[in-house]
Design a protein that fits this description.
single chain, mainly alpha, about 0% strand, globular, disordered N terminus, UPF0111_domain, DUF47 domain-containing protein, Put_Phosphate_transp_reg, PhoU-like_sf
């Protein structure tokens, strides 16, 4: 750990932890969507939208703190990248739920539950990791596991696409469902971006 002669602004750690906790809330809403009747999905989408707005507020708070702080706990560009990637995760999860409602999807395709389970696990790991930024300890297993989960998400995504294009769906349904599973894949990618940023920060601070 590099020796510092100046104090660091530590509120960033709490804000990153709060942002990650909000992502866990979003992942639980995704899980709830899986078991919900179509008539109940609109209410879930409303709660997801509220969670996404809370995520936006958390991101704006980090950016405000970044712009008003002379001393930061690590490089400014890394703080910006980490906050932005956390925000992206919530955006993608909210978009997926909203599309399910807007497109009036009756039955979600087989395999999408595996996508969402991967996202839920990545959310838990991310929420557990954020407080460790304060000490830069116990982070290696986190980014290794999230990268493994992203690889798993890639495989699930490819299988889902193969399923959608196997001729059992009409063309319009394929377009709708593909957009949903693609957005969920983007959420998995965003989790990997967060993990890669954490790894970059840890290497710089070591």
């Amino acid at each position: 750990m590099r020796f510092r002669l100046t104090p660091r602004e530590t509120s960033f750690y709490d804000m990153f932890a709060a942002s990650a906790d909000n992502i866990v809330t979003g992942s639980k809403l995704l899980m709830e969507l899986l078991g919900a009747e179509p008539s109940a999905r609109g209410e879930i989408a409303d709660r997801m939208r509220a969670a996404e707005h809370a995520g936006d507020d958390a991101t704006h708070a980090i950016f405000h703190q970044l712009n008003s702080s002379f001393i930061t706990p690590f490089d400014r560009e890394d703080i910006y990248s980490l906050a932005s990637s956390l925000d992206d995760i919530m955006d993608f999860m909210e978009e997926a739920v909203d599309l399910v409602v807007l497109y009036q999807i009756e039955t979600l395709p087989k395999g999408i539950d595996q996508q969402i389970e991967v996202l839920a696990r990545a959310a838990e790991l991310t929420a557990e990791a954020m407080p460790n930024l304060r000490t830069m300890t116990n982070l290696t297993e986190y980014w290794i596991e999230v990268n493994r989960l992203e690889n798993q998400a890639d495989q699930i995504h490819r299988k889902l696409l193969a399923h959608l294009f196997d001729g059992k769906y009409d063309a319009m349904d394929v377009l709708k469902l593909k957009q949903i599973v693609d957005v969920l894949e983007e959420a998995a990618d965003a989790f990997e971006h967060v993990a890669n940023t954490v790894e970059t920060i840890a290497v710089k601070e070591s």
